[in-house]
Input
Amino acid sequence: MNLVGREEFISELIQSFPELREEVEDEIISGLLHLEMASFARCTQDAIERGEFDRLIQYYKFADRFYRNANDPLKNAFYVSYLENLNFDSPNGKKGKSLLPSALLQGWIDINKYLKELGVRSLKPEKKKRKSW
Output
């Protein structure tokens, strides 16, 4: 199985969701995978918040297909710039979360667990050893 990367992902993203073309091809965003992925995350989040579940399922199916076959840089972008940005606290969030394919749900759980651990670690004061003279 060949892993897919940014070029194939972006090409198919624009082909599948032409409404993203203008933003993804913006001169500031274009070529920067994490910003391109964040555009896709915003679209997905908007569908969650508006309760557009048929559209959301299309986004999830697309994301799931690429997430499962992603090379390392693309997989990282999915964690950092897609899954990390999905928020299920809105009124439609519970249903939106329930529609996540299992691999994406596990990725979402993993990245949020990791972020929580980082936050806990950063809040704990370091224990300094006392110098004994």
